[in-house]
Specification:
single chain; about 140 residues; mainly alpha; DUF4296; DUF4296 domain-containing protein
Length: about 140
Amino acid sequence: MREMLLLLCLFGVVACSETKKPPANVLGPEKFQKVLTDLILADALSTERSFKDTSLKIKDANAAYFLKIFELHGVTKNEFMRSYNFYLSRPDLLRVISDSVSAVLNRENLKLTTDTVKPKPNGNNSPKIRIRDGNK
């Protein structure tokens, strides 16, 4: 009986101890984060384009963008989906990836918004105010 209890405890410890490393058939966290970031950007682009061109079908545009992104990163749709499902089953790892994706997107957004408001080359960035002389 004692041996059975010990065996059950050992089985419980082994079953509950999860490794932080994903299986070999799953994209690593960094690669998955890069692909996911590009997919989110592509989805935003196709959504924005659909507002300008109402004949554009978002689903078709996304499919084309997504396939190109998979090609650029050297992964297949199946590899990505297998990895996606794995990370969905591991909220601890998915949270780290999501935070990383969010940070990258925030940095890109900040870069884009600050690049649109560039200082004047002469260094004088304050608006010119003309004061009227009451004598003229």
